[in-house]
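Thread: quick sanity check before group meeting

JM: Hey all, I'm pulling together slides for Thursday and realized we never actually wrote out the predicted structure for the chain we discussed last week. Dropping the sequence here so it's in one place. If anyone has concerns about the input, flag it before I start.
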Amino acid sequence: MSAAPAPSASTDLVIDVDGLTKSFDGKKVVDNVDMQVARGEIYGFLGPNGSGKTTTIRLLCGLLTPDSGHGTCLGYDILTESQRIKLEVGYMTQKFSLYEDLSIRENLDFIARIYGLKNRRDAVDETIEKLNLKGRAKQLAGTLSGGWKQRLALASCIMHNPKLLLLDEPTAGVDPKARREFWDEIHELADGGLTVLVSTHYMDEAERCNKICYLAYGRLLARGTAEEVVAQSGLTTWTVTGPSPRRILALGHDLATSNGVDMVAPFGASLHVSGADRPALERAIAPYRNEPDLVWRQDEPTLEDVFILMMKKTPDNFQ
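JM (edit): ok, ran it. Output follows.
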């Protein structure tokens, strides 16, 4: 496989797209999305299932053609140079898609053949070493745990030294330790200059991204650093602690329909109460503030608070 010529224009933006729109069966899955991603950034996609995250990723890397919109990825035009983009992208899908009856080494050798890598054996050895797979190189992929399958999938995506790595919910179904180790690897890769786009449902993973965007039913509702997205929401959050989960649950039912309360969420013996209209929220909770068995504390809203609120306020375009 021959290497693609380098883009003519030098830029620090690996992705620069405007107005991306894509419909299926008359429904807009991606609706007028603009996005700029700088070289070396870890950029997180968040949003509910069916929000257009996967479709957007596929539009960006040339796997799908937008109905309208334009822009560049890695300096190449997404409409006319999609084949060049594909050569410089690593794409890790949600579902493990390597051969389960081949070993780690055999799977990586197969991937190296697909990319036509020179010094194939050296490339496989280097990748195994880089992803700490040496002790399991002869193990069949089908016998690996979720975390090790994830590590193998990542290895197969970076063998050809891509400039952009696309990760579609890569840590779904793996344990917290494996997730943390995976993210350590991602930060190492980004530190070496690789740009990473990752879709995730985990708020702790979103906070590890340099920047994030929130997609809901095809629309881009917020973007920036995690701190910027929280600040832009204008959300006020109170945490109230009570003597028992039952007392907190009853309070949550009382507040859920109150004017000014946009969201209530129980956490054991405490409750998050949030609203975008601060004065209205204060009036709603005022009758409960002096109850002796309740302790109130104003907290910073979390990303989860912000995104649940956004999802509640955005109509599902498939209903």
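AS: nice. Residues 1-10 have pLDDT under 50 and may be disordered. Residues 147 and 177 are 9 Å apart (CA to CA).
JM: adding both to the slides.
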